[in-house]
Amino acid sequence: MVFRRTVLSVARSDRLRSLVSGSGVTRGVVNRFVAGEDADSVVAAVRDLTGRGLLASIDHLGEDTLHPEQATGVTRGYVRLLERLAEEGLTPAAEVSVKPTAVGLGLGAEGESLAAANIARICAAARDAGTTVTVDMEAEDAVPATLRIVNGLRGDFPWLGCVLQSYLRRTEGDLAAMARPGARIRLCKGAYAPDPGSAHTDRRDVDAAYVRALRRLMTGPALPMVATHDPRLIEIAGTLAALAHRSTEEFEYQMLYGVRPDEQLRLVDLGARVRVYVPYGRDWYGYLARRLAERPANLAFAARSLVSR
Ligand code: FAD
């Protein structure tokens, strides 16, 4: 947790951002975690994944939306992408993941209603394309508004998914409120730097909270989406699903693009549903910083790519 907080706070430096984004030094690192900068690249990556029996959730990267027009632009990008996925025959295997701040949540008093309206447009386009949407969970201050938005849209789009983060103490209560029949819930550990007062700070506590939430999800009425690369949690998820008599259609594993690809295919071979979270777009900096903060090995990989230029 301390390592993550340090890397994330260093990554917030504007100087570092412009150095990294402008220099092209990190191309190898970016390519490992991001499927490209345009729709053609992401469509090709998703076609490759679905050809191997995997499902996909595509994130159009962007979390520094400063103007309503920018939020509208991101929304249009999602609508066009969903039309394209349908044309290419990639739905329903591919759905989309949306960050509320990318579609306006951070824009002052009107931000919540703007983000809700934009996510509703994306959901309508997904329905037309025959697929689904999952709303990502971001930093802690965005959690209450994000849950309100999802709850508000579930009436029209009952398949709208949301994310809960096991590092937050509040998640236990949120899970009880959100895991209703038909709901799709992605459970992850959490990738931001939450306030130690409201979050578990010890890895073991985050993992224990994950297992408690998983048990509740597997025995409850919602569709569990198990988002982790952690071998222990993946095994526990399989055991809990079996104990709850869930078929392989009644839960799914989710992993990030470029992370443990062999494990993704191993689970597919066992008959599991496995969805890969596929980010694409030019605004990859924040996403990449979180991947590097998660794991010292990822940071070492980035450092090697810097010195080997
Ligand atoms: P970690 O604690 O990072 O790792 C545990 C173990 O997993 C490691 O010890 C290792 O054995 C194995 N492992 C992990 N990474 C690797 C690797 N690169 N190579 C080999 N082994 C590895 N976070 C949010 O806050 N909001 C979201 O909306 C969100 N959406 C997500 C969607 C998906 C599909 C996924 C997979 C993650 C998402 N996350 C999200 C990120 C998540 O919160 C974690 O930060 C991230 O998944 C790392 O945690 P972990 O569970 O994989 O385990």
From TrEMBL:
User: Could you state a single Gene Ontology molecular function term?
Assistant: nucleotide binding
Q: What is this protein called?
A: proline dehydrogenase
Enzyme class label: oxidoreductase
- Which positions in this protein are listed as binding substrate? 99, 290-291
Return one Gene Ontology term, BP aspect.
L-proline catabolic process to L-glutamate
**UniProt-annotated binding residues for FAD:** 137, 165, 189-191, 228-229
Instruction: Keyword check for Transcription regulation, yes or no.
Output: no
One Pfam family from the record: Pro_dh
Alphabetical UniProt keywords: FAD, Flavoprotein, Nucleotide-binding, Oxidoreductase, Proline metabolism
Q: For this protein, what does the record note about how its cofactor is bound? A: Binds 1 FAD per subunit.
The pathway this protein participates in, as annotated, is:
Amino-acid degradation; L-proline degradation into L-glutamate; L-glutamate from L-proline: step 1/2
Q: EC?
A: 1.5.5.2
Tell me yes or no: is Oxidoreductase among this UniProt entry's keywords: yes
Q: Which reaction does it catalyse?
A: L-proline + a quinone = (S)-1-pyrroline-5-carboxylate + a quinol + H(+)
Q: Which cofactor does it need?
A: FAD
Segments forming domain Proline dehydrogenase: 44-302
